Predict the structure.
Amino acid sequence: MQLNRNARGIGLSAQPPSAWRLRLAVLATVALVTIGGLWNRFAWEDYDLILESGFFDRIENVQYILTRNAYYLKEKNRDPRAAGGKHFDLYRPLTHLSYLVDRQLWGDRPFGYHLTNQLFHLL
């Protein structure tokens, strides 16, 4: 906050910070609060839904991600898109596209997934 003398030169009046400074402060705060999570492992359903399903291993599955509920779990080496696989009724195309790209870039290393997530949150 910048302080300036008033018109008579007596006392000080506070001038609010500019909008870009506020935005920068919010971004820095979010980054600092969440940076520790970059080195976390996968949690909960991440193993089944992202790593073990095989769904995000194939870039060709982008058509399924954009047109229907995209999560299927592989059972007994079945194709995750095949009938009889466990189906999760989740249509989240942006999340799924992110997982698909992350799987291609980072494989099974959780750091990359967490980094992508943090970058999206900073936007």
Remarks:
- The longest strand covers residues 2-5.
- Residues 41-123 form one domain.
